[in-house]
Amino acid sequence: MWNYVKTGFHAAKGHAGIWLLLFLYQFAWGFFLFRWINSTVTPLLKRYPGDTLSSSDVMLFWAEAEFWLTRTKEVMPYVWMLGAVLLARMVLTPLLNAGLYYAVHQRGMTGKRSRRPFLRGIRTLGRAFTIVYWLKTVAALLPLLYIVPWLHQLTLSAGSWSLYMGKGLPAIACYLLYLAVLQLIAMYVQFGIAADRPALFSLGLLAKGLLPASCIGLAILAIAAAAALFSASVSLFWAGLVAVILHQIYTVIRPFFGIWHVTAQHLHWKEKASL
């Protein structure tokens, strides 16, 4: 397992151009969310009465906010703008994945840099990757139709916080495990698409090597979480220029963990496919 992780790390370093592109993509998305929240949500929160006024003023604030959201159309321009950006993200993300997976596959199979593999992957695999991405999104959202109402009802009926956590946390943990397995399924299907192999072939490889694939994902996730925790801890306990620099460095290297995961899993897929 560690051999896949270590070799995948060195393979990921060979995709510096894609790393930079993914960083700019995530930066643009985060910058839009920041500007959107700062221009829409922050002005509303400034009107919040706070603890200095009576509870009736707070209730009046929330009643007014509910009326403004449900009975007027003033919120619709913001909703349409956010929806348009989310739709654009759902269109662009699978195209970027197509370019990444194609480049990783070509480099992993030949051991050489091919000319413009990223753009060629978008052209040849973009449609198939879009279908897989949308199916994965639908499969991820469907359980929420049951989980969210169930958690809401549990919040209303639970007599204590410990009872709520005892029932709610296992459900949330199961859902997160479901998302992890769903991500692995989509990843291996996309490896098959990049190699022009049937989806059932890749799913069979995943079923046979589910434990190593899960360990690879957990190892890289643990490293990424440790890096995020270190960055947050420095910012919390050692505020200053060094903390700002470390936080910005983590922002730059964060997309690398995603590429690293793809290259490590592809090594595992390639080894299983060659048997």
From TrEMBL:
The chain crosses the membrane at residues 16-37, 78-104, 125-148, 168-189, 210-230, 236-253. It comes from the Bacteria. Keywords: Membrane, Transmembrane, Transmembrane helix. This is Uncharacterized protein.
